[in-house]
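Researcher: I'm preparing a figure for a lab meeting and need a structural model of a single chain. I don't have an experimental structure, so a prediction will have to do for now. The sequence is pasted below. Please return the structure as tokens so I can convert it later.
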Amino acid sequence: MNALIVRFVGCAASLAVTGLLFPDSCSLHGVLFGGLLLTLLYTFLRPLLQLLVSPFNLFVFGLLTPLTDALLVLWAAAWVKNLSLHYWEAVLTALLISLAYYPYSVWKKRKLAGMPVA
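Model: Understood. Here is the structure written out token by token.
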């Protein structure tokens, strides 16, 4: 449950930053519902999508990962009314989501490895 909350906060914050950088792209409604939908897509659909793309991703040294994440952001933008992102805005948002979730994933790996967590 903790990971879902962190994922939602990261997705919503990333959409808010995208909204600040590109003012016509999203509103508060789009940030909240887009963050919720992205949380669900990242939790349930992203692992399957990464599994399907993994043979190609090995050949291009992981460069398809941000592009598949951008695809999820574009899907969320298509489903949420007040969220309109273009492709490169979706790529930026996907990279921001990855950056927002990175500290939590490092903390989780340290906790599972038994290392001291600050």
